[in-house]
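Let's practice the habit of predicting before peeking. Look at the sequence and jot down your guess about where helices and strands might fall. Then scroll down.
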Amino acid sequence: MNVVHYPAEKLAGLLNDQKVATMPELKEALGTSVTYTVLRKLSPLGYRSSYSHGGTYFTLDSIARYDELGLWSCRDIRFSRQGTLLNTAEALVTQSAAGYQVPELEAVVRVAAKDALRQLVQAGRLFRREWEGRYLYCALDRTRRQEQWAQRQAQQEAGEDLPAAKALFYSLLDQQQRRLYAGLESLQCGYGGQQRAAERFGLDVDTVARAERELLSGQVLRGRVRQPGGGRPAVEKKRPKS
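Done guessing? Here is the structure:
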C-alpha cells in the first residue's frame, strides 16, 4: 500500500511568499482536500487563524509582527497572539488600565466586538457595569476591576484640563521628542490615530507614521534631535586673506 506524504515545507513556502493564505490555497499547495491534514501539518509550524474574516485566513507566528498588544494585520486581515476574537477581547480588557467600552475596544481590534464582549460576560470571563449610559467592560478579578474603575474615574476628572496640559508639555519638547510624542498619541488612539495626531500637532501623517515605527521597533536616536547629517549644511568660516 502506497503511503502519501504531505511535506509541511510546501505550506511554509506558500505562507512565507504570501504572508497569509486561505484554507483552499493551503489545500492546493499541500495537494490534499482534507482540512484536518492541513491543520495537522500546520501545527508544528506554529500557526494562527485570523480573528477577522471569520477565521478564514492563516499565517505563521514566525511571519506575524505583533505589536505591543499582541495584534498584527496584513491587508486588513487581523491576527492576534491570543487567537480568537473572544480570547483577544478578554485579554485586552483584562490588561487595560481603565477597561473598555465597545467603541474603544473596536478602535483597537478594528472589527465589531460588541457580540464578543456580550458572550464573555455571559460566560463569566469578563465583568461589565454601566458608565455614562454605556457598558464599561472590566476584568473579572475584583481587585483588578476596582483599579480599572478608579482609573476611569480619574481620567474623567482630569478630562477638562488634560488637553491643555498636553499642549503645554508638547511645546516644551524638541523636534524628535515632539514627533515621538505624536506617534505615541496616535498608537493610543488606535484606528484613525495617525490622522488625528497629525491634525492635533500640525504634523504630516507620514511623520506620525514614522514615529510609530520608531517607537514600536525601539529604533530611537538617543541624545540627538536629527538624524546624522540632518539639518542645514555647515557653513565654512571665511578667513581674511593674508
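How did you do? Residues 20 and 75 are 9 Å apart (CA to CA).
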